[in-house]
Design brief:
243 residues; mainly alpha; flat; single chain; 2% strand; 9 helices
């Protein structure tokens, strides 16, 4: 092969990638600008997660549209990488264990779908062709072969919520298995975080003024039960693989 032919192939490869994925690069650039803008604004105004939680509590508690605002904020939260745990605790503090769980389940599963769709968009076309035998493709096939149990275990051991959502979409895991496992597997974590928020008492203007240890103990107990269930499912999965 001549030097000119080699150089031609070298320059065609990146051009082909840009041609196939230009829309993803534009979307990624826009997303990074939004994320960077939010982080810059938070830094300039000294908005820690705790400070944002205080502002959310004032807004949600004083508005008739509080539940709707909360669900929309939760749904869009993964685009800003804002903590799901913080919003779940806020829900427990504002609405208590019952309605806090209801609103959090709606918001968290909506946000899971948003992140899944984003991950699927960016992953489309990246795990095909020459990469079909690569490590990522093999890992994707392993997850797809038992999607429900894999996602369920990841939820029960409290892996980072958004990481699981984006990864499931990027690897093109079956959506029905993903969302079903997410709905069921997120229940223990939702109860645990919402109860942790419900155990805090006060108006949060100057910080919490009280604490209910019994409610917090229930939160810790649910954490423990969730990990035990995950261990049981993992053990069953290993037995099934050996069989």
């Amino acid at each position: 092969m001549s030097d000119s032919s080699a150089r031609a192939r070298l320059f065609r490869a990146p051009a082909g990638f840009l041609h196939r994925h230009w829309h993803k690069l534009i979307a990624l650039t826009f997303w990074l600008l939004v994320l960077g803008g939010y982080q810059w604004y938070a830094w300039r105004n000294d908005l820690s997660s705790f400070a944002v939680a205080q502002q959310l509590i004032r807004l949600l508690a004083g508005s008739a549209y509080g539940p709707l605002l909360f669900i929309v904020a939760y749904m869009l939260r993964p685009l800003l990488l804002f903590s799901a745990a913080v919003l779940s605790i806020v829900a427990g503090f504002v609405w208590g264990p019952v309605w806090g769980v209801v609103y959090t389940l709606i918001g968290s599963n909506s946000s899971a779908t948003v992140a899944y769709v984003v991950g699927r968009f960016f992953g489309r076309g990246l795990l095909t062709g020459d990469q079909a035998t690569g490590l990522m493709q093999r890992y994707a096939e392993r997850l797809r072969s038992n999607s429900f149990v894999a996602v369920m275990i990841m939820r029960l051991i409290f892996l980072p919520y958004d990481l699981v959502n984006y990864l499931a979409g990027f690897l093109r895991i079956d959506y029905r298995a993903f969302i079903t496992a997410t709905i069921l597997g997120s229940i223990p974590g939702t109860f645990a975080f919402v109860l942790a928020g419900a155990s805090i008492q006060g108006d949060f203007r100057d910080g919490p003024s009280g604490f209910d240890p019994r409610v917090f103990a229930a939160s810790l107990a649910i954490f423990g039960i969730s990990l035990l269930v995950a261990r049981y499912l993992k053990r069953r999965e290993r037995v099934s693989d050996k069989g």
